Amino acid sequence: MADKAQIQEAIKTQGEVVRKLKAEKASKEQMNYLVSSIRSGISCLLQSKSLILFFLCTLVNNSASNYTAMIGLLTTFLLFFLLDANNPAVVIPSSPSVIYFLYLTRHHLESKHSDWIFLDNTAFGLDNPAVTWHSRTVVIGQHGLVDFAIGLYCCSDAALLNGHFGCFSFDFVLLSPAGMINLGMASLRLYAGLVGCRSGFCARSLRTLSGMTVSQIDEEVAKLLELKVQLGGDESRHQFTLKTAKGTRDYNPKQMAIREKVFNTIISCFKRHGAENIDTPVFELKETLTGKYGEDSKLIYDLKDQGGELLSLRYDLTVPFARYLAMNKVTNIKRYHIAKVYRRDNPAMTRGRYREFYQCDFDIAGQYDPMIPDAECLKIVHEILSELELGDFRIKVNDRRILDGMFAVCGVPDDKFRTICSTVDKLDKMSWEDVRSEMVKEKGLSEEAADQIGQYVSLQGGMDLAERLLQDAKMSQSKQACAGLTDMKQLFSYLQLFQVTDKVVFDLSLARGLDYYTGVIYEAILTQTGPVPVAAAQNGAGEKAEEGVSVGSVAGGGRYDGLVGMFDPKGRKVPCVGVSIGIERVFSIMEQKAEASAEKVRTTETQVMVASAQKNLLEERLRLTAELWNAGIKAEVMYKKNPKLLSQLQHCEDSGIPLVAILGEQELKDGVVKLRTVHSREEIDVSRAKLVEEIKRRTLDV
């Protein structure tokens, strides 16, 4: 028997099509937009075994409508015979003005209507109040396991012929001459069923796109294609451009070798200062990150709701660290953390600015005497940048209390402190004129206040500047500013003991826009640029190479005494200070230097290559290689039975492997190995028992 819900749904769907075609009209311009937006998707769908049916109809009001209907009918039959029943039938009229998307799914066939009566092999249809059709269905009978049925549904100006034959069903609309003139409609509906199970696809919904905007049309097309992927019927190979996502990049072995060297230098410095290592999840609850970054909060990547939890990718490593301290009730720790963070920033690949990048953080949490931990953080920055030999650098320091006091005495309203601070933070990228214009025109600050700020942010110096500002007529009126200036003097006295004052400057223009800073802030910048050594657009088309690499800030940090208290139920604060190394920007400089110097970068640490000059010595080579591995020697062997000696030596040249242990029949008899130095090509015979010791002696620096 034909499925009751299937027959009922056919009537309902076709009735809605007819009714909506009468009621809806769309302009030719709208349809041109629609056709252009889905044209690329149609070409893929025609090649795929999809569970989606594009149902396209025309609405015309001219004398050519009969021909339009005939073209649509012929196209339908052509596709029916050319395409397999499991493939989508796509009919594109010559001048479409209305397109309906009718998508099919495997969901069980259910119907809320119950106005059908079945008697044995015959069913009589009653009037369906949901549509204007007057219908009657006759079920012809059953043959073996295959049901077959024919239904005829009639109205005043059209008739619907429905058939169900085993594995597929169809609907065909016959229009009277009046109907063709009014509707110009011819369609074929195909969907697969399952023999023996008597189940098939049913139309779940019908959407009209008439009168929709281009963006709404694009959204509907995206939803339809998403449904197609979810249904999993597409096995064809799609054409697409292989590239990394915007703001990300791949690292080849040479680049990874440079990265590993940088990481080792940084980690060694952190450990030298007694830091412990921790790790936190790559995503946090959204509420954990909300309200911690000021205007930069718009750069946070939010994730789709998963099981009721609103999540975001971490923006930095500082806020997760504060959450970790509060959650685990840790009151003092010196830690380091190296991990990836994510920001929806505008990437600049040649400047080392990405959307996915590593941060290397060092933080000291706990109650200590003022400025001692702060000075150690600056000492760490100085050590790392000096050891990496990136070039000349400068570490700028300031204090949030000094900034807030300066804003207050210059006449900035309290509620504008943070937003004006964010604008001042742009002075490293914009001229003072542009910053002043933003403060006045966009932030609503008075010109007089902006000019007074301009007088202060141009000041730079050291301990002498802090002493001079303590005597300043305006700054001395602010208790906040005086407290910050007093601590600044103390900081410089410790920096003198650490012997790093040659690179540190007190700069009142340094603001750092993050909301959680409460005291000393600092930022390290490189003061030189250079040529671009590597491809500027490793993530595909659209990235433009710049004239040079100017990475700017490579490290930053400060004191954030109130951040942990934001997460503690009782508001208990844990004083913290830390620094973050912008490692991706460091990589840009290191790659530049390696490229400019034509330095050969080793991508492996292999100490020796086990080779043979004669055939049939594979087992002996493998045996010696295993001995070296067991002794802690980094060794390689070629994966061929009889490799040529020249090929083995060339591999050592290309990979920078310093030694080759060569086996031959004579060496095996004598119990020795011929040890060759690749660079000098010198060879000596070494006894098998002393080979490990000799390799270690010759490769101490490898």
Automatic annotation (TrEMBL):
One of the record's GO cellular component terms? cytosol
Aminoacyl-transfer RNA synthetases class-II family profile domain span: 218-590
Q: Which InterPro entries match?
A: aa-tRNA-synth_II (IPR006195), aa-tRNA-synth_II/BPL/LPL (IPR045864), Anticodon-bd (IPR004154), Anticodon-bd_dom_sf (IPR036621), His-tRNA-ligase (IPR015807), HisRS-like_core (IPR041715), HisRS_anticodon (IPR033656), uS15_NS1_RNA-bd_sf (IPR009068)
Superkingdom in the source lineage: Eukaryota
Question: What EC identifiers does the entry list?
Answer: 6.1.1.21
Gene3D superfamilies recorded for this chain?
A: Anticodon-binding domain, Bira Bifunctional Protein, Domain 2, S15/NS1, RNA-binding
Return the PROSITE patterns for the record.
AA_TRNA_LIGASE_II
Q: Which reaction does it catalyse?
A: tRNA(His) + L-histidine + ATP = L-histidyl-tRNA(His) + AMP + diphosphate + H(+)
Q: Where are the coiled-coil regions?
A: none
Query: What GO biological process term is on the record, naming one?
Result: mitochondrial translation
Instruction: Tell me which UniProt keywords the record has, alphabetically.
Output: Aminoacyl-tRNA synthetase, ATP-binding, Ligase, Nucleotide-binding, Protein biosynthesis
According to the UniProt record, what class of enzyme is this?
ligase
Q: Name one GO molecular function term.
A: histidine-tRNA ligase activity
Protease listed as a keyword: no
**Family stated for the protein in its record:** Belongs to the class-II aminoacyl-tRNA synthetase family.
Under NCBIfam families, the record lists:
hisS
Instruction: Output this protein's name.
Output: histidine--tRNA ligase
Native species: Oncorhynchus mykiss (Rainbow trout)
Q: What is the lineage of its organism?
A: Eukaryota, Metazoa, Chordata, Craniata, Vertebrata
